[in-house]
Design a protein that fits this description.
Blueprint (H helix, E strand, L loop, with lengths): L3 E6 L5 E7 L3 E6 L13 H6 L2 E6 L16 H15 L4 E6 L1 H12 L4 E7 L13 H7 L4 H12 L2 H6 L14 H12 L14 E6 L9 H8 L4 E5 L6 H4 L1 H14 L4
Parallel strand pairs: 3-4, 3-5, 5-6, 6-7, 7-8
Antiparallel strand pairs: 1-2, 2-4
Helix pairs in contact: 2-3
Length: 267
């Protein structure tokens, strides 16, 4: 089903584009840094088929959303998600955030607990001094002068060689190609400054932490840090998966997440 497009207005007047598809219990799908709703193009169908209404959005600075040249933050992005929920008429939803979307989801569950039924945090990090940072060699490879080589390296961080050899794309998890350079910088800073360590123990929503065992883009060691910090959180590691586990390992990841959400259905 093709998603229906809408616009919400954040507290500061920024227009946030969002997409809604399917019907049933709502689940908000939050994409990674510098990405649009297309991050979820493949997996969202699994949730709709299972009887969920899916809600995605284009982060401010991406896609069809406004792109103000001012500081962004993961906590501010969480407030943008609430503006989308309000516009969509959704009082409470399941929330599934991956990568930077998982950082945003942490704030959403901490600051707006009444809006979150169950929480899934995928391939993400608590941020701050307690987080496990990616290796310096990874950071250097991503900023090398040879942009074609850097782009290829990013794909290899997302997917296994076997997947890349048989799937020619297009790939919607490597950033919005039309995003202004200043907005990319704003996203990078927002993600880099994320630090939800102190509020993680306050999260009351049932929480599932998912990560690929071979993720070096956002090291797998962050998963147990989050799972141990959030009360009663559960952790599942997907063997052999890299950062885009939700896409390449969709046949494992989607049923795993759906089973968890089904355990915590709305009363």
């Amino acid at each position: 089903m093709r998603p229906e497009a809408g616009k919400a207005v954040a507290a500061d007047g920024t227009a946030i584009a969002f997409q809604s598809a399917g019907s049933g219990i709502p689940v908000v799908l939050l994409a990674g840094q510098s990405n649009t709703h297309r991050w979820w193009d493949s997996a969202r169908a699994d949730f709709e088929a299972a009887g969920h209404r899916t809600i995605t959005l284009d982060w401010r600075g991406t896609g069809a959303s406004d792109k103000p040249d001012e500081p962004y933050s993961t906590r501010g992005f969480a407030a943008d998600v609430v503006a989308v929920l309000d516009e969509a008429g959704i009082a409470r939803a399941h929330v599934y955030g991956t990568s930077m979307g998982g950082r945003v989801a942490q704030w959403l569950a901490a600051d707006f607990a009444e809006r979150v039924q169950a929480l899934v945090l995928g391939c993400t990090s608590p941020g701050g001094a307690h987080a496990i940072e990616r290796d310096r060699s990874v950071r250097q490879a991503l900023v090398q002068a040879d942009r074609a080589a850097a782009d290829r390296y990013l794909l290899e961080l997302m997917y296994t060689p076997e997947w890349l050899a048989t799937n020619q794309g297009p790939y919607y998890v490597v950033g919005d190609p039309d995003m202004p350079a200043y907005a990319k910088g704003r996203h990078l800073t927002a993600s880099g400054k994320h630090d939800a360590w102190e509020v993680l123990p306050t999260i009351a929503a049932p929480t599932l932490v998912v990560h690929g065992t071979d993720d070096v883009f956002n090291p797998t060691a962050n998963a147990p840090l989050i799972a141990e910090r959030i009360p009663d959180a559960r952790m599942e590691l997907i063997e052999g998966a890299r950062h885009a586990y939700f896409d390449e390992f969709r046949a494992i990841a989607s049923p795993l997440v759906l089973a968890f959400l089904n355990e915590h259905r709305f009363s």
